[in-house]
């Protein structure tokens, strides 16, 4: 409800100010939507492309280490106590 109220309030302010022409109205709506999109992206705290690539490489290395450990575990035999 508050999101729709925000948009309606912004549009009503535009009409009050006399920005009735289609181009002005269109530009203002696009600016409002872009600012909302930027706010959402900022709140999500998404990693940059470089950070993502670094994390991807680290995960690949860890997966390789896990595979090596699994292979080594299969090779090790349990010794019977006498």
Structure in words:
- By secondary structure, the protein is mainly α.
- It has two domains: 1-45; 46-76.
- The protein is built from three helices and no strands.
- The longest helix is centred in the last third of the chain and has 27 residues, at 49-75.
- The chain is rod-shaped and about 95 Å long.
- The protein has helices at 2-17, 22-44, 49-75.
- Helix 1 packs antiparallel against helix 2 (22-44).
Describe this protein with a few key phrases.
82 residues, 3 helices
How do the strands and helices of this protein lay out in sequence?
Layout (H helix, E strand, L loop, with lengths): L1 H16 L4 H23 L4 H27 L7
Helix pairs in contact: 1-2
Any low-confidence stretches, pLDDT <50, length ≥5? none
**Averaged pLDDT, please?**
82
Radius of gyration: 28 Å
Class by SSE composition: mainly alpha
* DSSP summary: helix tally: 3
Strand content: under 5%
The termini sit apart by 75 Å
Shape: rod-shaped
| Strand tally | 0
Main pleated-sheet profile: none
- The percentage helix is over 70%
Order of helices and strands: HHH
Please give the domain count. Answer: 2
């Amino acid at each position: 409800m508050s999101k729709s109220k925000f948009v309606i309030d912004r549009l009503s302010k535009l009409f009050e100010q006399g920005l009735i022409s289609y181009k002005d109205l269109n530009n203002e709506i696009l600016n409002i939507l872009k600012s909302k999109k930027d706010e959402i992206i900022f709140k999500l705290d998404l990693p940059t492309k470089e950070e993502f690539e670094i994390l991807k490489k680290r995960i690949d290395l860890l997966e390789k280490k896990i595979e090596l450990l699994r292979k080594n575990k299969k090779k090790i035999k349990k010794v019977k106590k006498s």
